[in-house]
Write a structure and sequence with these properties.
Layout (H helix, E strand, L loop, with lengths): L4 E5 L4 H12 L3 E6 L24 E5 L5 H11 L3 E4 L6 H6 L1 H22 L4 E7 L22 H20 L3 E6 L2 E2 L8 H13 L6 E3 L5 E2 L2 E2 H11 L8 E3 L5 E2 H11 L8 E3 L17 H7 L7 H23 L2
Bound molecules: NADP nicotinamide-adenine-dinucleotide phosphate (NAP) and ligand G4F.
């Protein structure tokens, strides 16, 4: 019997790298979709990548794009994956206000291209859609669960809402095994550097080492339910192993402001953030999501999933990693 095959879009991103590690550890063959870029963009998965010509190589990278349906169709037909994880997206909420049409193209329509690719080939891979707590947007209900009404507040969230509903529709209309993981914010030392947590921990490390004096941020009062990405990819995999497909909220249940994240991170490093943080309206959003807090009871009960890493531990992990990285950079360059 051949090993299980997974196809992952967004493999070069934070979640793609953790999911690849998890699937390889479970004996899967992993096929990752990468975009052509003018510089290398595989830093997060380089440690997992073997020579594709090597016998037994279990991670292979293929050029493709969520905006290019024919490349996706060809992949599905030739790879014949057992599971498809659609993690690829223009995933930055603030940026989606600047490039709304592109965000819809990739984050919204990219999903339908994959779903149609599955339908057209007549194959029956299981399908995971990376849905988001941003779907809840301006909700007044707290905490949010699978039954909470959506109120998207950005082009990103509206594109994710389209992708969410198409995933449900293909499940109902064509009997596809398709799930939405409605994941609340999850972070790690591999988090993209323009998301607020990583922006803070990177800046903090630079400040501590004398390489930066100021940190410019937007809204410090927004509340997020921040978990650890390594825990959240396990939930993705669990959703794909159930007898029936379904949609699940994945969250810690705790909510903290950006200000609290600053307190925790700078406090841990023995600094007072008020001395360094400046407000910059550039980082405010035309419409903000003020408060997110998830209720993952369904995932706990049905998947047996629960987060292992708490808020304080997450902040420490990210600060430690950025401190070590900056130290290494300084030792490497002498600056
Ligand atoms: P990320 O680090 O920003 O990674 C996004 C991935 O999508 C990257 O691999 C990127 O490739 C790829 N991508 C972008 N445009 C693409 C295109 N046109 N075609 C193919 N791939 C494309 O995001 P993440 O934090 O890992 O999140 C993974 C997914 O979960 C995303 O869909 C995100 O919207 C969703 N989500 C994330 C969170 C969270 O808190 N992290 C919460 C809920 C949902 P490049 O490396 O080439 O740019
Ligand atoms: O870190 P953020 O950019 O994450 P956001 O907007 O919550 O989106 C992330 O989580 C979603 C899940 O809910 C994902 F779907 C999405 O793909 C992405 O991964 O911003 C968090 C909060 C916001 O309220 C923002 O206004 O931090 C506030 N913030 C304050 N200053 C800032 C900044 N955000 C960023 N990126 N940069 C700032 O300077």
């Amino acid at each position: 019997m051949r090993p299980k095959r997974a196809l992952i879009t967004g493999i070069t991103g934070q979640d793609g790298s953790f999911l690849t590690e998890l699937l390889l550890s479970k004996g899967y063959e992993v096929y990752g979709v990468i975009r052509r870029a003018s510089t290398f963009n595989t830093d997060r998965i380089d440690h997992l990548y073997a020579d594709p010509h090597e016998e037994g190589a279990r991670l292979r990278l293929i050029y493709g794009d969520l905006a290019d349906g024919s490349s996706l169709n060809k992949m599905i037909r030739t790879i014949e994956p057992d599971e498809i994880y659609n993690l690829g997206a223009q995933s930055h909420v603030r940026v989606s206000f600047d490039i709304p049409e592109y965000t819809a193209e990739v984050t919204g329509l990219g999903t339908i291209r994959l779903l149609e690719g599955i339908r057209e080939t007549g194959l029956t891979p299981r399908f995971y859609q990376a849905s988001s707590s941003e779907l809840f947007g301006n909700t007044t209900e707290a905490p949010q669960n699978e039954r909470t009404k959506f109120y998207p507040r950005s082009p990103y969230a509206a594109a994710k809402a389209y992708a969410y509903y198409m995933t449900v529709n293909y499940r109902e209309a064509y009997g596809l095994y398709a799930c939405n993981g409605i994941l609340f914010n999850h972070e790690s030392p591999r988090r993209g550097e323009t998301f607020v947590t990583r922006k803070i921990t990177r800046a903090l490390a630079n400040i501590k080492h004398g390489r930066q004096r100021e940190l410019f941020l937007g809204n410090l009062e927004a509340r997020r339910d921040w978990g650890y990405a390594g825990d959240y990819v396990e939930a993705m995999w669990l959703m794909m192993q159930q007898p029936e497909p379904d949609d699940y909220v994945i969250a810690t249940g705790e909510t903290h402001t950006v200000r609290e994240f600053l307190d925790e991170a700078f406090g841990y490093a023995g600094l007072d953030w008020h001395e360094f943080v400046k407000k910059d309206p550039h980082y405010l959003r035309p419409a903000e999501v003020d408060r997110l807090q998830g209720d993952a009871s369904k995932a706990r009960e049905r998947l047996g999933w629960k987060p292992r890493v708490g808020f304080k531990q997450l902040v420490k992990m990210m600060v430690d990693a950025d401190m070590a990285r900056v130290k290494q950079e300084i030792e490497g360059t002498g600056k």
